[in-house]
Amino acid sequence: MTAFRKFALRKTVAGFFRDATISERISLRKMRGTFYLVFATLPFIFSCASSPSPAPKSEEKLPAVAVQVSPSKNRSFFSSIDKETMRLVEIGSPQSLRQAAASIHKSSPDDYSDAEKSILYISAEIMKLAWPSEAVTWSVPPIARTNQYIGAVESAKKGIYDLSMNRSDFLSIMLPSLVLLTSSGVTIEDYYELSENSLNFALELCPDSVLANYLMGILCLKQNENEKALEYFKLSNGKYAGGTKEILESVAKACFLTGKYELALSFGEELLSRFPQDTELLKTCALSAFHLGDFDKTEGFVVRVLLLEPDNTSYVLLRAKILMENQDYIRASSLLDAVEKKNSASKEYYLLRTQLLRDWSKNNAAAIETAGTALNLYPYDSETLLVAAETASVAGLSVNGMTALELAEKVLEKDSENVQAMEILLDEYIKKSDYAKAYSLSSRLMQIPSVQKTSLFRHIDICLALKKNTEAMNLALKDYEKNPADENSCMAYVKVLSASGQKNSAMQLISSLLSSASQKMKSFLYFERSQIQGTEDSVLADLRASLTANPRNKDSLYSLYKIYYAKKDWRRAQYYLKQVVALDPSNSLYLSKNSELEKLLGR
């Protein structure tokens, strides 16, 4: 900020408020009467009370409220206008602005005073800038002479924060901040601090101002203070707001940015019932539904966006992403091809193409290459690093010379609580049988509520690998007692019973579950029973039953490999091992064992 601006700021009332400490600000808010007396020598005429009356109906007027202000020798430019009318303008909602305009309506333009003309002009411009969805329902008479209030509005329309205002009342303090609604390219240093100070003081004068709270919310959004923005938008959405579209839309946006996706979707859908063609609302609803995992609803919103904006590549890609989530890879591939033909390749395109090659085409080499391209273009982007790490983990290869573990660690350097990076890292530790590190990381994941349930079963497996059977039993039993019908809970409890030597209890539980189990569950139960059977014939019978229920059960296939390997029946051993390798082609242990069998078979 220039020296001139700092000097100008100190000379303003807003500058005084900025220099106050937090405790001083609290004192000021508790003692408004004393606060106003400090400025008695300034030409303030305040008309907005701290405890407003109920919301006015369209034909109802807001009652005037007395404010403690010492008499001033200087009169405000608007002193001739009724205080009740000024209070309506200061509230600044569409409803109150209409009431203010109606209260000073004259039959002839010549009958208006300069102050009344200015108020009608200011109210109309506020409506156009802040509430464009609302109509200006009054005529603005010609203004022969400009003044500082009109000048501030005109400056704001040009993207300029007016520093020349003589801040003598609510409007002179608040109006320069209308620039927040018109300017997007100006740097923070130019006016954000000035605006924040002025709006803080304006809200001291009129805490119920819909407009001032709304502008403060916009300012917070511009500074990425999304939680604060949401609070201000909630304040602006009080009894005077009257369901104003721009306010509800901003509440929805702030809810989305703060991760409150259900609220964002709720506000968005409410507004869409009134404004069904609003693409920004459709986009907010689409993204909120996507984060909530409601892909059917997401696709409905995305289709509506694309009907209005058919060339919107971002939403073509979002639709492809939804199709991939639903495993509709053929249609997703077609959409990605269409984007590629338009030369519209972006970060999202490369990431989706990588996932398609990896998960559907099973072309790990091409997936690694595409992930590498994305990483070259966006080397510091966390989402790109995560997709590259996941691809490296699945393929068992490096991306641009970095392993899955190294890529995940890069993400954690920037965000130590990134759950996806932690889970990739955990998978790598388990692959390397580094269960000590896996246990430490898994314990951290168990403390995160959003992933506690999914982390539980993996943590139990890690405990069993480390012979921490007591901890595994405590966790598995507690979860089983809470969710006795949940397959994952049953599977974990069976594993722990078997591993801790409670074979009879394990056999009884398996027998009770088999009759009503799904095919996947049956396959698991037969495998677990095979591990505690007494004879080889019983073991083989259970393993074959397991594969009948699920031919892709890797544990059962690997157990049969080990049985035939021990019998030196290399051909049968390889028959089962090759199926294991097909299910987990990047596992170095399985690959080395298969190479060994190749040698034993003389190939």
From TrEMBL:
Keywords of the record: Lipoprotein, Repeat, TPR repeat
Protein name: Lipoprotein
Domain of life of the source: Bacteria
Taxonomic source organism: Treponema succinifaciens (strain ATCC 33096 / DSM 2489 / 6091)
InterPro entries linked to this entry: TPR-like_helical_dom_sf, TPR_rpt, Ycf3/AcsC/BcsC/TPR_MFPF
Intervals holding TPR repeats: 554-587
